[in-house]
Design goal:
This is F420-dependent oxidoreductase-like protein. Keywords: Oxidoreductase. It comes from Nocardia goodfellowii. Residues 10-275 form the Luciferase-like domain. With 308 residues, the chain is of the alpha/beta class. 46% of the residues lie in helices and 15% in strands. The strands form two sheets. An eight-stranded parallel β-barrel has the order 1-2-3-5-8-9-10-12, surrounded by six helices. Strands 6-7 form a two-stranded antiparallel sheet. β9, α7 and β10 form a beta-alpha-beta unit. The protein starts with a strand and ends with a helix.
Length: 308
């Protein structure tokens, strides 16, 4: 699984039905995976389970569930349900969260890296052993009943949307890889991948999320990117990696152009150390160019397939 698409719909009459429809279109183009962000109106592991069961050609993943406001016991159960439903094609993505998310739960956004470490420690114990006896400063996980779900095999990959030095260290020690977003090739290759690799005991996965679209309307797509991605310009963790790349705003990191331009942009991320790439914001230029983008991804995926 080296190329995927992050799905998000607008103006849906039924978000779940539309997600399945889009996933089928992605699979028809030969793309290997679809990913779902965690919002406040749907549950991403449940959506991934439904889509993965309806479209068995695809790997499915969540990117990413904030640990703020959640507990390892609940996330373990959700992940195992999705893994069993998809017969082993689910990838669990977690995030530290933000003050915005914490505020929604009425929870202080303090010590996020310490919380991440405790969350991952308890979660890995639950997933790997079927129980836990974890007593941390910030959370406790001591289930009175077994937590292993029949059919939830193989081992569920746990990935983290980590980009800062401390979060990368914890992720390297306790998870299987990272889900960086808006971290350009230079930042990925010079900052993020080396820090992660130093902390990891095995070769980590680097699943880079990259806004991109194949289109002839470059100016229109760039203007839409400025509008769609403006939120990230105000978030400190994203602002940091945007500036490290030498960009002024998130939209500057979007790859927009013809097939050759987008393919070359994707290759730069592989050259920087990404093991997998997921395109986001493929709807920047409308439905026709979104299909054009997915078609290119399928062609690139076929070129990278070991069978070829």
């Amino acid at each position: 699984m080296t190329l995927g698409v992050a799905l998000a719909q607008t103006n849906s009459t039924n978000y779940i039905d539309d997600s399945v429809h889009q996933a089928r279109a992605v699979a028809a183009h030969g793309v290997g995976s679809v990913w779902f962000g965690q919002r406040m109106d749907y549950d991403s592991p449940a959506l991934a389970a439904i889509v993965g069961r309806e479209v068995p050609a695809l790997q499915v993943g969540t990117s990413a569930i904030p640990v703020i406001g959640r507990h390892p016991l609940l996330v373990s159960a959700q992940a195992q349900t999705a893994q069993a439903a998809t017969h082993g094609r689910y990838h669990l993505g977690l995030a530290l969260g933000s003050s915005l998310v914490a505020g929604a739960f009425g929870t202080p956004f303090d010590r996020p890296v310490a919380r991440l470490r405790e969350f991952l420690t308890a979660l890995r114990e639950l997933l790997d052993t079927g129980t836990a006896d974890f007593h941390g400063e910030l959370l406790t996980a001591t289930p009175p009943l077994p937590t292993a779900l029949a059919g939830a095999q193989p081992r569920i990959p746990v990935l983290v949307a980590a980009m800062g030095p401390q979060a990368l260290r914890v992720t390297g020690e306790l998870a299987d890889g990272i889900l960086p977003y808006l971290a350009g090739p230079r930042t990925l290759g010079e900052q993020i991948v080396p820090a992660l690799t130093r902390a990891a005991t095995t070769t980590p996965r680097v699943v880079a999320f990259v806004p991109a679209v194949v289109t002839s309307d470059i100016e229109g797509a760039r203007a839409e990117a400025v509008e769609q991605l403006a939120f990230y310009d105000q978030v400190p963790s994203y602002r940091r990696v945007i500036e490290l790349e030498g960009a002024q705003r998130a939209a500057d990191l979007a790859i927009i152009g013809d097939e050759e331009t987008v393919a070359a942009g994707i290759q730069r991320y592989y050259d920087a150390g990404a093991t997998e790439i997921v395109l986001t914001a493929t709807d920047l230029a409308g439905a026709e160019d979104q299909q054009r983008t997915w078609k290119l991804l399928g062609e690139l995926a076929a070129q990278r397939s070991p069978a070829r």
